[in-house]
Amino acid sequence: MAKADETRAKILQEAATLFNQQGYAGSSMSDIMQATGLQKGGIYNHFTSKQALALEAFDFAFQRCQERFRIALATKQHAIERLQAILGVFYSFIEDPPIAGGCPILNTAIESDDANPALRDRAQAAMNTLRNSIRRTVERGIARGEIRPTVEADTVATVMISTLEGALMMSKLYDDPVHLERAIAHLNDYLCNRLQPPSI
């Protein structure tokens, strides 16, 4: 990797961690300079503005999450097992987050809201990726007879993501994994008893 590419990758990694922990508004250029060990000019050689850096840093953070999901799903074929693998990835965010500070989608969605439309759009696109993955899994499961035909795929996505993200927030707030553990136990029951056909 060329020196310029190494420097750019380092800026992205450090900025992604900083923004995920302190938020976009709470992270100054001085903070980014301190984290990267670079002067402002060195950062602006690679990114035209703090906003441009924030957008790419979010993409970097989300790619880390996607890689975690990709690995977890690689060996799972049955729809219920694939959905349970997603639960496992969220549980890993407590002890071993893909990037320090927790789930970047949750953090960015809460912070950006109406204050930063570009970051909000990025978070929404990332959320759509997760929603679509769950929906496709459910739809394939219905087609294969692994999930009840009356199940609505987008409802499953809403229930899973809302429950997991809310529980993750509570576990971080209280510094106690029990909230996420309870949510995952509830969702496992939901998957096995509400989604699977009775004969399975």
Describe, in plain words, how this protein is organized in 3D.
By secondary structure, this protein is mostly helical. The chain is 75% helix and 0% strand. It contains nine helices and no strands. It has helices at 3-22, 29-36, 40-44, 50-73, 79-95, 104-112, 117-143, 153-174, 178-195. α5 packs parallel to α8 (153-174). The longest helix is centred in the middle third of the chain and has 27 residues, at 117-143. It is elongated and about 65 Å long.
What labels would you give this structure?
mainly alpha; 200 residues; elongated; single chain
Quick structural overview:
The protein is built from nine helices and no strands. It has 200 residues and is mainly α.
The portion of residues forming beta strands comes to under 5%
CA distance, first residue to last residue: 51 Å
Class by SSE composition? mainly alpha
User: For the CA atoms, what is the radius of gyration?
Assistant: 19 Å
Low-confidence stretches: none
Shape: elongated
SSE pattern:
HHHHHHHHH
Number of E-state strands: 0
Largest sheet composition: none
Q: How many separate helices?
A: 9
Q: Helix content range of the residues, please? A: over 70%
Mean pLDDT: 93
